[in-house]
Amino acid sequence: MAKRSSLFIRIVEGKHLPAKDITGSSDPYCIVKIDNEAIIRTATVWKTLSPFWGEEYEVHLPPTFHSVSFYVMDEDALSRDDVIGKVCVTRDVLTAHPKGYSGWLNLTEIDPDEEVQGEIHLQIEILGSDAARKLRCSVFEARDLARKDRNGASDPFVRVRYNSKTQESSVVKKSCYPRWNETFEFDLDESATEKVCIEVWDWDLVSRNDFLGKVRGDHQLIRTVQQEEGWFRLRPDKSKPRVDEGNLGSLQLQVRLRDETVLPGSYYQPLVQLLCQEVKAGPKQDGKLCLITLIDETTTAECRQEVAINLIKLFLGQGLAKEFLDLLFKLELDKTGEPNTLFRSNSLASKSMESFLKVTGMQYLHNVLGPTVNRVFDEKKYIELDPSKVEIKEVGCSGLHRIQTESEVIQQSTQHLQSYLTDLLITIAKSVRTCPATIRATFRQLFKRVEEHFPENKHKNVKFIAVTSFLCLRFFSPAIMSPKLFHLREKHADARTSRTLLLLAKVSPVLPYAALHWQRERGGGVCVHKGPCQHFPVQHFRSAKLRSWHGKVDQPKAQTLVVKEGPLFIHRGKGKGPLLSSSFKKLHFSLTSEALSFAKTPSSKCVNELNQWLSALRKVCVNNAEMLGSYHPGVFKGDKWSCCHQKEKTGLGCDKTRHGVTLQEWNDPLDPDLESQLIFRHLFGVRELMR
What we know:
alpha+beta; Immunoglobulin-like; repeat; zinc ion binding; zinc; RasGAP_dom
C-alpha cells in the first residue's frame, strides 16, 4: 500500500500588475515552487500588465509537502529579473477545498525573512541531576540553505537562544550545506516559558546579516522524553504582520490536491479482469448493461477528461486500447442518428480518442507540425484574410512608397498561407510510415464502424469526416493554435504569429480530407473553405495511398525510448535564472531509457527548462533500486567538497536525493495500480450517488 499525492495547477491570468520597465509595462512570467523547490516556469507574456497564460500542469509530489508558491516575475534581457510578488497556498487550505481552490488571489510583497528553505540536524537533550540540570543543544549540520550572496552560496552560522541568553556558532564560508558539530549548554530554568530557538543566519561583512530560518524546540516535551534528535525544517520569521493592500495586482489560479491510497495490484485484478472481458467481448453484450456503458453514462463534464485518460492508460497497459475504443465507437454510433453530429460532442468516446492520440502520438505530432510551426514563428509574416481586419501599410523602397490595397494584402496573405499549408501537406504525405501502428489500426477500425453504420451512398463521406475530425480538429488544429501547450514551443506566440497560427489551424482540416479524395480530384483542388484558400493542390498526397487507415499496419520495431532530448544551458556561477547566465555553455543532451549522453551539436531553437529535465531524470530513476539516498551537489576540489567542506571524497552525500516531485506528461510510464485505483474511485462515487 502506498500513498500518492498529485496537484493539478492551472495558472489562468493576472491583472493590474505594476509596471517594471521604463516603457510603463512588464514582461511577466510565473515560477511555481513546491516547498521552495522550483518545478514550473510558465512562458513570458511580453509588454502587458494583464497577462494571460492558461497553462495547466499536474504534479506528482510527496504527501508530506507543506505549500505551493507562485512567484510572478518580470523578465529583463540585460539585468536580473524583477520579482513582482507572490501567492502562497498551503496544504491545509487545499485540504479544506476537496473540489479544488479557484479564484483571484492578491500578490503580496516578498519578505526576505519568509523566503527560507532547507533543514538543520539537531539534538536537544536535558542532562544532569535535579539540582543542576542543563539544556544541551547539539548543532550538527544543515542542508539546502537559501543562497543569499552574489557568489551563489551563503556564509551560515547558528544562533541559539534560551532564557534571554544567546550563543553563536562559527561561520562556515561559502556553503549551503554547512557542518558545525558544535554543542551549546544552558542552565535549565524550570519556571521558564520560553522555547529554545535555533536560528540560522548568513554572515555579511558589510551589510546586515540575512535570516535563513529558525527552529523552535519545546523543552517541556524534551523534559518528558529526555532528548529529541533529527532533521528539522527551517521555518520563516513571521513576527512582522503585514497588511495585504492588493497594490501588486492579482493572480487567477485553479489548484486541486488529490491524495490516493494505492493498494497492491492483486486487489484490483477482479476489476481489471471484468473490464478486459467486456472489451474483448466487443459491442455485443446480449442486452446486458456492461461496466463500460455504466462509466460512459455516469461521467460528467467535470470528470470525463480524467476518466478517459485513466481508461486509456489502463487498456494501453493491457494491450487492448484499440478494442476499448472500438467499443466506445459502437456505443456512440448507436446513440447517433444524424451523421453531421457524429463525434462532435465531448462524449467519453471523443475524450478517450483525444487522450489516446496524445498518449501515443505526441512524438508523431511534433515530427509533422514542428517544422511548419517553427517557420511561422521565425518568419513572423503578416497574414490576414478578413477584410474588416486588414491593416493597410506602406511598401516600397525609399522615395517610392505607396499604400497597399486591401486586395493586395489579402492576396499576399493567401500566398503565405498556402506556402505553409503546402509544407504541412508534403510533411503529412511523407509521415505515413512514421505514424504509430496502433493509431493507424484504430483509425482503420473507426473507418470500418462508421461505414457499417452509415452504408447509404449519400453518407459515403461520413467515414472520412469521422477520421479527419479526430486527426485534425481534435489533434492537429489545437496544437497549431496553441503550440506552447503541446510543447512544440517554449513560449507563447505574439499577436501577429498567433493570428497566423489561428488561420492555419482553421484551414488545416482540408489536408487529410484532400488526401482521402485525391482519386476523385486528380490534379485538381478540393473545395472545402470559402474564400482565397478554397482550392488547394493535393497531388503530393498520391504517395500516401490511404495507408494510414486502410493499408497494412506495420509491426512496431523495438527501439530505445527517448525520454527527453534537446539543448540545455549549463550554469557557471553568476546569472539571472536557473538556465541563462552571463557565462554559460550550451550542450545537446539526450536522455533515453538506457543512457544519458551529450555532445556539442547544432540543435533546435527550443530551450528546455531545467525543471523539465529534472522531472524526466527523476521518472527514469524512480524504479532504480541502486539509487543513492544522498549526494554531493558540489564538486570535490582540492581536498574537500565545495558544498559541505567534507574531506572524504567517498563519504556520504550531504544532501538527500530528491525524486518525489515530477511533472506529469503524456509520455509518463504507465502505472496500472494507480489507474485502477482512480477508476475504482469513480465507480465507488457513482455507487454512493445512486444510494
